[in-house]
Write a structure and sequence with these properties.
The chain has about 350 residues and is of the alpha+beta class. Helix content is about 35%, strand content about 20%.
């Protein structure tokens, strides 16, 4: 089945209302999934999660009234409490911080990539990723006509406002990778992860997007890859108080869930015996891109189906050696042609599901 597809316009609250109404059942399911995940993996009961969420929501209203209004709209449209919807939108900070503190073998996921025009058949800038996450989480594709900035086309989770991975009408795109560092602390109340994604999608230039990512301190660690048509590609490894910018050394770039050189950046990652799996996926992606370039969309689709080192492969599948609550799969394969303003997405593992094409210019 294809991902649900929403066309949004109007104010942020109006966009949120349509999102909430259209995805009401999926949002209810996601709320339940995340509360179960918090309790099983992070040892946080529902009341404690909502208590932390309320603290974050108070800060969000000062950081971005637009995003705050979007969350309020989703709550209204889905008939859910605003704290439950805010929890979905803050789940990166709340869940990653808690898991990172409790588990030295926290499960990683997501493999991002980018191709400069020299590496693509059509001489376009192409970026994308396999986004690996909880098997049962419900997701959607959205196109948004924004009254205040560029229009955008994006992938998101049901109940998370704006977009997580996507591109905009200025030909600027973003991918994401979860990471950890010892400085992660949700109580810092800095701009949350999903707000930064939303603001990158609202940016007109690479400089504006970089300022969104590194212009202010962060609560938790994350990796972002951004690119723009006829411009450039940049990867940003961002810890709470430090960051590293990585440019392509050749014609391609890849990233997974670890710092490329944490020692030189003076960033400390918590110990994790599974980190070698992230390094494998990153190196495998880069090797395939270089081996098979120049690539077209169909060629990239085949790379995103790669099963080398299955199930901990680029196309990720449940690992029977892990407890069920730590199972992770590739929820979507993503390809973005930034010049054509086109996005291809799967609803589930690329090896089992077709890529659906979306265009921002239609």
């Amino acid at each position: 089945m294809r991902l649900p597809f929403l066309e949004l316009s109007g104010t942020c609250r109006e966009q949120g209302q349509v999102h909430g109404e259209a995805l009401k059942d999926l949002i209810e399911k996601n709320i339940q999934i995340y509360f179960e995940r918090f309790e099983k993996e992070a040892k946080l009961i529902r009341s404690k999660v909502l208590e932390r969420t309320e603290s974050c929501l108070d800060s969000l209203q000062k950081q971005s009234l637009n995003y705050f209004e979007g969350i309020g709209g989703i709550a209204e449209g889905s008939n859910q409490g605003i704290l439950e919807i805010a929890m979905l939108n803050f789940r990166y900070e709340l869940l990653y911080h808690a898991i990172g503190k409790l588990q030295i073998d926290a499960v990683d996921g997501c493999t991002s990539y980018a191709l400069l025009p020299e590496a693509s058949v059509n001489a376009h800038t192409i970026i994308g990723q396999n986004w690996d996450w909880i098997p049962d989480v419900e997701c959607a594709a959205v196109t948004t006509v924004s009254p205040e900035g560029p229009h955008h086309l994006a992938f998101t989770e049901a109940g998370i406002f704006g977009g997580k991975i996507g591109l905009n009408s200025e030909g600027l795109g973003i991918t994401v990778n979860g990471m950890y560092s010892t400085g992660d602390d949700w109580t810092r109340f800095e701009k949350p992860f999903h707000l930064r994604c939303f603001e990158v999608l609202g940016s007109k230039t690479m400089e504006d997007a970089l300022d969104v990512l590194i212009g202010t301190p962060r609560s938790c660690t994350a990796n972002f890859m951004i690119g723009q048509a006829q411009n450039s590609i940049m990867d940003v490894e961002s810890a709470p108080d430090k960051y590293v910018q990585i440019s392509p050394q050749g014609e391609v770039l890849s990233h997974a869930n670890h710092f490329t050189d944490p020692d030189s950046a003076e960033i400390t990652e918590p110990p994790n015996p599974r980190r070698y799996l992230s390094k494998f996926r990153c190196e495998r992606m880069e090797a395939l891109l270089n081996e098979l370039k120049p690539l077209d969309v169909e060629g990239i689709q085949e790379i995103l189906k790669d099963h080398e080192n299955y199930p901990q492969s680029i196309c990720r599948h449940p690992d029977p050696d892990l407890p069920q609550e730590q199972h992770t799969i590739t929820k979507t394969g993503v390809i973005m042609d930034l010049d054509e303003r086109k996005l291809w997405l799967t609803n589930g593992n690329p090896c089992k599901n077709e890529f659906t094409e979306f265009s921002l210019l239609n």
